[in-house]
Design a protein that fits this description.
Structural class: alpha/beta
CATH superfamily: Acetylglutamate kinase-like
Number of helices: 8
Radius of gyration: 17 Å
CATH architecture: 3-Layer(aba) Sandwich
CATH class: Alpha Beta
Shape: globular
Number of strands: 11
Number of domains: 1
Strand content: 15-25%
Distance between the termini: 31 Å
Order of helices and strands: EHEHHEEHEHEEEEHHEHE
Oligomer: single chain
Length: about 240
């Protein structure tokens, strides 16, 4: 491939919606397979990799709360959805011969390991991919916040947010032809302009721990490795 990465350890955040592909619900295993191929390319760069996957393709806590469900219960259902997505991703990675572990913030020993920080770091040091499931384990916190938290705990060099578009825009490029794309942004710009790339808690956590956030399109084949090697299209959020 000829690529090299300036990053030693990274966390990839993938939304649950990204796993739907063209479907309106559930998991498109073709999309999961493509993401697993991209992860394989990154591992070939000798980059230690961990993931946080959302659950919005199966159940979204906020949507449940909006229909009258008690928010904590709805959020816990959303956390369980992320475990299902993580198990699907684990399966796709293992089919490629990639060793990986799912670690859940909600203990469920029959299907995955409980989240233990030191064990997670050791897995990555051994070359395994770690998939962090069940968010932070707490209601009222998004999986974006979970991603920023885990990136800080794992001492990651960067947090990569895989989205539907190739960076951060001042407005939705799917609905506005004149939308402006940013190459770089400061954390404070994202917060002050209320840019909807990640929630404010996640951006603040990344800012406090000096973790750059790289926003790129998860659907462009090979873009994960290209962004890490400085060749891909992305928006870099830092100070």
């Amino acid at each position: 491939m000829g690529q090299t990465s300036q990053y030693r350890r990274v966390l990839l955040k993938v939304s649950g919606e990204a796993l739907m592909g063209e479907q309106s619900y559930g998991i498109d295993m073709n999309v999961v397979g493509q993401i697993s191929r991209d992860i394989q390319d990154v591992l070939a760069l000798n980059v230690q990799t961990c993931l946080v996957i959302g659950g919005g393709n199966i159940f979204r806590g906020l949507a449940g709360a909006a229909t009258g469900m008690e928010r904590s219960s709805a959020d816990h259902m959303g956390m369980l959805a992320t475990v299902m997505n993580a198990l699907a991703m684990q399966n796709a990675l293992e089919q490629r011969g990639i060793q990986c572990r799912v670690m859940s913030a909600i203990p469920m020993d029959m299907v995955c390991e409980p989240y233990i920080r030191r064990r997670a770091i050791r897995h990555m040091e051994k070359g395994r991919v770690v998939l962090f499931a069940a968010g932070t384990g707490n209601p009222f916190f998004t999986t974006d916040t979970a991603a920023a938290l885990r990136a800080a705990e794992m001492e990651c060099d960067a947090l990569l947010k895989g989205t539907q578009v190739d960076g951060v825009y001042d407005k939705d490029p799917k609905h506005h032809a004149d939308a402006k794309r940013f190459d770089t942004l400061r954390y404070i710009d994202v917060l002050s302009q209320d840019l909807k790339v990640m929630d404010a808690t996640a951006i603040s956590l990344a800012r406090e721990n000096n973790i750059p956030v790289l926003v790129f399109s998860i659907h462009q084949k090979g873009s994960f490795a290209k962004v890490l090697s400085g060749e891909g299209l992305c928006t870099i959020i830092d100070d």
